Structure formats: C-alpha cells, structure tokens
Amino acid sequence: MKARIVAPSSALGELKNLQAGLELLGSWGIQLELPQIANRRWGYLAGSDGQRLADFDATADLWACARGGWGAARLLELGWQPPEGLLLGFSDVTSLLWAHQASGRLGALHGPLVTTLAAEPTWSQERLRLLLQGAAVPPLLGRGWGGGKGEGPLLVANLTVAT
C-alpha cells in the first residue's frame, strides 16, 4: 500500500509527532510519500490554498492527513475532487471526508491523523492497521447510552464543521 501524507489544514507544529506517526505507518509495511509539508506555513495554514490543493495531485492508495485544525474546507471552494483511494483524518478534515462520501466513493475514514496516530491506544492502532491491510476488523463491544435500535447511514464528523 502506498500512502501520501497530505496537510490540508493547519500548519504542523512540533515534528516529533509527525515522525512518530510516519514510523508507525512504515512499520506496517506502508510505503510513504511525503511532499514538502513539514515546514510549510501560510499564516496558520500548512501552505497556501493552492499548495495544499496541489498535495492531492498524485496517486495513492491512502491519503493520510497529517494534522487537522482549520482550513480543509477552503479546498472545496477551489474545486477539490476526492482522490481515488482511502482518505484518513478527523477534525476539520470532516469537510473533505463528507465530500469524499458524497461523491459516491468508498473509503472516507474518520480516524487518526498522522500526528496523533502514535499516541492512540494500542487497540485503536491495531484496528486501523487491520483495516488498512484488508483484514477483518473485530466489532467494537460496548453498551449504548440509550435503549432501542436505529438504522440508517452513519456519518461521523467534527460537529463544529458539520454545523
């Protein structure tokens, strides 16, 4: 699997969290492609809108967002098109995940950012690894807060972005 690390949102801060996430992904046998995002900054963003949009001008099996924050929705105004493959992230990346899902493509994954991946609990890392490797992922067990049953599409999101 080839993963391209993209930074559609806020600028990266300390790079040790990015490095830890990259090392973990690499240990899973994922081939990593990292455009020049580490020290790129345009105000509070990880580059100009054009630079951040251009990060998606490639091919990959997995598009792993380095960081959330703010700014991803601005790419939609520039005509961002959901890439082929899986798109992984959370926070303001919700806007891109929803656009990806609305396009009819499968693979919008509301999950860890590269900068948060190494700090995830082991069970969470393992579930992501299994998913990315195409293995069966055991169901989550637990008790709901309320009774009853529900049916329908599940849209996971950052509620600030969703409203």
From TrEMBL:
Signal peptide: none annotated. InterPro entries: Class_I_gatase-like, LdcA_N, Peptidase_S66_N, S66_fam. Pfam families: Peptidase_S66. Residues 4-111 form the LD-carboxypeptidase N-terminal domain. SUPFAM superfamilies: Class I glutamine amidotransferase-like. This is LD-carboxypeptidase. The lineage of its organism: Bacteria, Bacillati, Cyanobacteriota, Cyanophyceae, Synechococcales.
